[in-house]
Amino acid sequence: MDTESLSGRTIVVTGVTGQVAKPVAIELARRNRVIGAARFTDPVARATLEGAGVACIPIDLLRGDVSDLPEDAEIVLNFAVSKTNDWERDLQANCGGLAWLMEHHRGASAFVHCSTTGVYKPLGHHVFAEEDELGDNHGIWPFLRTYSIAKIAAEATARWASVRHHLPTTIARLSVPYGDGGGWPAIHLEMMLNGSDIPVHIDAPSIYHPIHEDDIVGMVPGLVAAATTPAVTVNWGGDQAVSIEEWCGYLSDVTGVPARFHPTRDTIDSVAIDLTRMHQLVGVTSVGWRDGMRRMVAARHPELLT
Fold it and tell me: Which letter, b or e, does each residue of 21-38 get, where b requires 16 or more Cβ atoms within 10 Å of its Cβ?
């Protein structure tokens, strides 16, 4: 679906300085009144957004400080996330802050909450549908101890608030986002460049559904249109299931930089997902992973392409 289907609307995008939300806000600002919400600790990021027509309003979800956002917003896209590793702060910001946000915008026609496929309980090479079991998929990473559990709790908050405020809501469980702005494959490329081993799960291959930022932007109207009360949950990823081993091998092919792997149990397991519901409600992705990753290299390290 093309973003031209959203035009002349008032749209709030939270977490707007982040890798995923920034291109969404910039594209939507071409035809809509877009309010970007974040803490705005980086003045350069704020200036870039404002230069693209995004009105920037500081918020603090930890304190529930969202009162400066326009109450007449028709659509809210919540990409904000707190991952400080402080349990009290992260639960309060991700859940309490979301509750404040949804109450403030209870008159909106649609609320899209970006979650993660990292909420699923590790089950090897199981292909996860939206009703499958949830569990901590990041506890083994010391830098993301709170992430999965805070995301699960935030989903519960979104479901409650959707019913409480009669606010049509979509909970979109995002797989691996990537593009010119970065992402996990871009991190792997940097690891390859500095000679670091790339952790992969011992139960190989480590499979995910990378989704290019162009498809993320293009599927937002579909996620908005899918919003219901009670909330609907949708897996959100690229149509092609790809392993870390495969995409790093491809990055090596196009750059000539070797990829070295370190099989271990101390990393997250595969999270392959069933995209049936996404296809029914939102559509299919259009950017093939090889093309998307080559474009990522061209944007971030053009000197590596021969």
Answer: bbbbbbbbbebbbbbbbb
